[in-house]
Every structure is written in C-alpha cells, then in structure tokens.
Design brief:
- By secondary structure, the protein is mostly helical.
- It has a domain of 35 residues.
- It is 67% helix and 0% strand.
- The protein has two helices and no strands.
Length: 51
C-alpha cells in the first residue's frame, strides 16, 4: 500500500509533519482493530482486550 499526498510548495513543513503523524495513528488503529477482529474470530478473548 502506498499513501501519497501532495502539498503546495509554499505549505509550511508542519502540514506534512502533522499529516505523517495522523497517518501513523490511523495505521496503528487499523492494525489493532484487525488484530482484535482476528482474535475474536478465533475465540481468543484475552487478545481482544489488549491495548
């Protein structure tokens, strides 16, 4: 998966930095939700409560 975003050349660096952090958090949330879903389907209740 490749995620791209284009900013205007004049955009402050903080735009890119903050957006990169946002993508990182969204990716982490997706992985956690997917792991919980797999664990739930396998009947592993302990893994569904992991944070």
């Amino acid at each position: 998966m490749i995620l791209d975003i284009w900013w205007p050349t004049a955009a402050p660096q903080i735009f890119g930095d903050d957006h990169a952090q946002h993508y990182a958090l969204e990716f982490r949330n997706f992985i956690q939700m997917a792991a919980m879903d797999v664990a739930a389907k396998r009947g592993n209740a302990a893994a569904t409560n992991a944070h």
